[in-house]
Each structure stands twice: as structure tokens, then as C-alpha cells.
Design brief:
heterodimer, A: alpha+beta, Penicillin-binding protein 2a (Domain 2), Beta-lactamase, 2 domains, 5-stranded antiparallel β-sheet, elongated, B: mainly alpha, 3-stranded antiparallel β-sheet, two-stranded antiparallel ribbon
Amino acid sequence: MNRQVSHIGIAALVLLSALIVGTTYWQTWANAGLASRQDNDIRLVAQFSIKRGKIYASDGRTLLATNVTKKVGGQTLYFRRYPSGPLFSDVVGYSTQTRNRTGLEQSYNDYLTGSNANLDTVFRSALDKLRGATVTGNDLILTIRAGAQSLARRLLRGKCGAVVALEPSTGRILVMATNPAYNPNLIEKHFKEATRSNAPCGAPLLNRATAGKYAPGSTFKMVTASAALDTGRFTPSSPFYDPGYCIEYGKQVRNAGNPEAPETFGNLTLSTGFEHSVNSVFCNVGKTLGAGTVLDYAKRFGLYSLPPIETPESERVASGLYDHGRLFDPKHPDTQVDPGRLAFGQERLQVTPLQMAMIAATIANHGATMRPTLIDRVISPDGKTITHLHPDQLGRAIKRQTADELTQMMELVVQGGTGTAAQIPGVRVAGKTGTAETGRGNFNTTWFAAFAPANAPRVAIAVVVENQNGGFGGTVSAPIAKQVMEALLR
Amino acid sequence: MTEIYRLNPNDAFRQGIWIVVALALFSAALFLLRYDYRRLETFKYLFGITAIALLVLPVLPVLGLTVNGARLWVHFGSLRFQPGELAKIMLIVFLAGYMREKREVLAQGRPKDWGPLLVIWVLAMLVLLETRDLGGGLLYFGIFLAMLYVATARIGYVAAGLGLFLVGAIGVWRITPHVRDRVTIWLHPWTDHKVYCPISGHLDLRQNCQSFQLVKSLYSIGHGEYAGTGLGKGTFANVSGKQIIPDLNTDFIYSALAQELGLIGAAALLLVYMIFVLRGMRIALLAQDGFSKLAAAGLTFGFALQTFIIVGGILRLIPLTGITLPFVSYGGSSVVANFLVLAGLLLISNRANREALR
């Protein structure tokens, strides 16, 4: 009988060991999966018992995100409040109970909750947990200037579009404003109201600056001209003849109607063609260089890759040719892409405002692209700087000489070409207009990309406005760019 | 006890009273049976019948009380009692007595000797089916097989028993929607699409409906990680202050413990249970007579199996069936029963030691 007793004893121990194994599984191996479940209330409470770090604009004082406390079941919970409302919603995003986080609230969640891998933070958070004290997250200080941001939003009122401004030498994003935007304070309890648009277009939750895709129109000529000069095939004074159209595949492609320029220019140079945005000139440049070369230069400027800023990947898109809604990187560009239309920014090109600002900033920075960034520094609750911005060069798009020649051509645009509305007294402004037909009546997407001062650039900007009836880049977007640049240079 | 206090101070106070009652009964049992508990063997049929009677009690109209779909409680005024816990011990005493007497003949497998055993057995099973106490059924069946194996040394019986259990389980699965539900919850607690929710009658994700309790309990366990949140620091209420897991301090106390004590604490608790099992089996080995051996082994195995059924259910090792976790859960009958198990083991141990000294 004793043998049998031992046997069932062993069976009983095996059963209990299985429980230890099971507990281990759930507490270690499967824990990450459980923690990421949407309906995990415990994680939610744990998250809300952390005092999230605050978010400030570049002055370190203007508060963009803070907390309100609420006592629930003996625990102090912290809920987010956004004092600036819709002004920064596309950048900062939101952190609520019932919905996924967005914006920097999502991508910088680790820093904001004090769970980043930084040694100082790990030590402090662990100590807080052991003492039973409230875990406090790190504060973020953004690169965005609150004043200019608010001006840009004001200028966009009643329109749909975006303004992005960069500091060319460091990649700091000084303005990233979109309209329509949403009020993050309403997301939790009044989602319908929060997503109601106050502009003639929908989707206020979309960050148009980083995820809005627009046909670039003539602003793309900055890229085509870069390719023309950088390859050595053309100089600013290369001669062209403009009959008012260019011939592609045996058919005439007419120049876009521009109120400030004659229909046909006759004899002119590349520089003059750029100044007055003459499509036939760039059509011919495109045909000479080939679509492959133009696309190659587009890639050097950062198209076809996600701009590496700190917001979540899902809130950014890459610029480039789009085919049936998907990024299209042609294997045989010289047969698959129309080089003439590509050269003046039509074809199937789609560019985000951020990408356009990066192109302007690259030219301003003598051909080198700086990594664009939204975060100036991260500060621990006791005031120590945990990380701060190290300007980082992503790569060189064009030669220094090319950039300088292009700068001169862009200055001419503002001095006497299509972009005169962007003139700032006492400041040399370099810019390029763009007006892309939407194919719907007289409605255009209007662009302006610029930087200033041209001799020592401190700000580069891109402005896009959607669906302007009879509007042009030079008349709709250039004045907005001018005012924002003025505010930033002040 | 600390954990119950933490989760519900009122319950802790009542649990305190129950522990005093249990200790009194524990002492009484030790005192009354101090010379020779083996005379209990004489009353084995009485025990068997009482056990059945106790199991039937909750089904009776006036006394019975249904909680969470299982009719397991008896109430006298405000006093609630779960007679199944006591019935378990009585059944073990009956089985020990009967098997001791008939072990040789049982091993030969004559139908005549199986009679009373099967009668009691089938009655118990019917009652369990009627009260929908699946965990209890599994527990009694396991104890029965283990004791039968100790008594007859025939592994064939165990195999046959398990086979019968499988057949029975499939049969029950096919005829009772309640059981089918439990199995579905066990296999697929999470759904990505909304499915019919019998609780609300609407379409809903299963984790928000039938498997709500299981899923929330897993979240609680997972949240404990290695070291746990610390006693008194666990999270059991959601952002709006509502308790997350229903029945936390009875059937689901393990998930509360695992959150607050972490893997280290939960494993320590299970190791203590293992030590208890080792000691119990040692007592069974040392005992000199068959009745003592069978009773000790049955009580100990029952203890381990009960732990496995509830914790295994919580950990999704097996389908979840609600029974209490020995010595930890809130519940008067459970405490009393567990102390009586302890008393039984002590008596057997005491006698074994005395005989060994002689």
C-alpha cells in the first residue's frame, strides 16, 4: 500500500508544480501580451497612478499638457489636461482612458511615465515604487515656438492646410500647425464633438503636416532644378525657348495659367524659367535628365522615406509617387514615369508639408539635410536634463555650390517672380510657389516654400492650403509664410 | 486572512469568527477522538449517507441558496453554509472505511462488492450534476480514484476511471450548455469579433462577457510580475473605482495574492502547500493500519487536487470551476472543513507515532 501512497503523493506534487509553472508563465512570459490588452483595467489604473511628465513649448513655460488629480478608491489618479486646446493637438496628441494614445503622448510615453531606460530615471522610478511614492514622469520641452504656432493657426482659420517651419542649421521644428485641428480635452467624453471640423474639410484628427499628401506642383521645381544644376548638365544661365507649351509623347502640354506672367516667354534662361515658374522649361529639363535622375534627387531630399521626427510612425507618411493610394517606387522610371510632368511636380507626386519644409531647409543649409526634431530636451522631475537635442546631419542632398545657385534663383522668385507676396522689408527671402490643380473645377492646392534670411537662413517654411478656388501659391500661401517667418525672425 | 482583510474588512471579521469556530471544532475533534479515531470506521455507512444528505441539502427548496448559478449553499437566517465541504471529509472517511474492509475483494473485481461503493458514488455524482458543482465533481472523482488506487494497487482501475470520466465529460459537454460554455471560455477567453453574450443578450466581445472574470483575473496575476505590488498595494478597482474582479476573496483569491506577492510570493505559497502534501503523505506512509493510510492519503490528495482545480482553473490550465482555495479563501465552511482535515491528519500522525514508539 505504501508504494501506492507514494505514487499519489507524487501525482499531487506534480499537480502543484504545474500551478507554479502556470503562474510563472502568466507573470513572466505572457505578461507583456496581457499588459498590452485594451481591456486591461489594472494596467490602465497603474498608468493613471503615474504622474505623467508635463509638456512645454520651446520657452519652457507655455504649458501644453498637464495633469488634474482625482481620488478613486483610495488611490490618487492623474488625468491629462491640455491647456492649449487644439493649438498643439496634432503634435502633442492625447492620452485618455478609453482610446489609444496619439502624438508625442504615444511615442514619448516611456519618458512621460518615467519608464525610459535612462539610468537616472530607472533608479528614481524604482526608488519611488519601493517607497510607495507616486512615480513622476519626465517633462518634455518642445522646439515649437508657441507664439508663431498660434499665429500660423490663426492665419489658417477657415482654410484647410498646414504650416511647417524649421531651423535649417539644426532641424528644430519651430512651427507645425494644421487646420482643422481637434480639442484633445474633448476626446474622452465628447469624441463626436471633438472630431467635428470647423473648416470646409473633414478629418481634424489627421496631422496634415506629416500625414497630409498633396500634389507639390511647381514647388517640386526646387528638386528638378537641384538635379539640373547638381548633375552639371545645366547652369542657371542655360538658354531655353518657351513656346507656351512643351511637347510630350507628341502632344502639347500647356503652361499653367499664371496671372502675373505672359503666356509665352520665348527665349529665356533656366533661372528666369524658375523665377516665373515656366512649366515648359522644366518639362524639357525633365526630358533631358530623365525621370530616374529626378526621382534620384527627390530621394536624396528625403522623399520615399518617413521623415524621422518623434511622432508615432502611423501619423507620418512618406512623400513620393503614389499609385492607387500606395507609395510607388518605379523599377524602370524612364518607361513608367512621365519625366516632363514629374519635373514640374504633377505626375502622381504627393508630398507632405513637412517634407516640403525639409527640402527648403536643405537648400538653406547649403545642401545638407538636418534631422528634423520636435523635442528640445527631456527634464527629470528634479530639474536635471536627461537628454537634449544634438543636431544630426541626415545626409547631403546636393553640392554646396548647387544650393547657393538655387538660393539665388529662389531669391529672384520673391524679388520679382511669382512669390513677391512673401517679401519682408529688410530681409532677403528665398522662396518658390506652387499651384497644383486638383482636377475639380478651378480648385487648386496652393504651396509656398521659402527660407530667410537668404544669406544666413534661420528659418525655412512650407505652407500648403487645400482647395482654393482660383487661388495660387503666390497669392494664398506666400502671405501666410511671410507673416510666420516675420514672427520667427523677430 | 490578511489578504481577505485587505480586500474586504467585513469579510475578514466574519472569517475571524469562522476561524475561532473552526479551531473549536478542531480541538473538539482532537479531544473526542484522542484514544482511537478508528472507531469512526464503524460508522462508515452513516458517514456515506450523511455525506449524500449534506450534498442534497442545498437542492431542498427552503434551505437552498443559489449563488453564481451553482446551488451549493444552505442558509439558516443570515448564516450561510456550504455543506459540500464537510461532505467531502465524510465521503473520504466512508471510502477509507469501506475500501479498507473490501480491498482484497475489490481488487478481484466482483460486482457484489462494488455495489455500495457505486451506489454512493452515483448518488454523489447525480447530486453534483443537479447542483451544477463541476469543480466539486472533479474533486470527488479524483479523490475516489486516488483512494481506489491506494486500496487495490490496480492501475487499471485508475485508467478505467479516467476513461469513464472522459466519456462522462464528453457526455455532459454535449447535453449541458453550462459546461459547454465553460469549455469555450477556457479555450477562447478573448475574441476579436463580437459574439453572442448570454448574460446581456447582446453581441459583445467574450472578454467583456462570459470570460470577464477569468480575463480580469489573468490581468491581475500578470500585473504581479516577479516581486508583486506589495501587500495592500495591488490594484483591484478600475479607474472609476469599481471592483474589477467579482468573487475576488473567495474563488479568485489566488489572483489577488499573485498580484500583490508576485511570482515569488505565489510560488512560496504553492511550496508551502507542497510541504503540506509531503507531510500528509508521510503520515499516510507511517500509519500502521489500512483505514488510517487510506484516510490520510485521501485527505491529502483531496487537498492538493482542490488547490489544483481552482488555481489551475484561474491559470487556464483546466476549465474554470469555482471552488475555494484551502486555508486562503474566504468562506466559513471551507475554513471549518480544512481545520477538520488538519485534525484528521494530526490524529493519524499521533497514532502512527505512538505505535512506532511501542
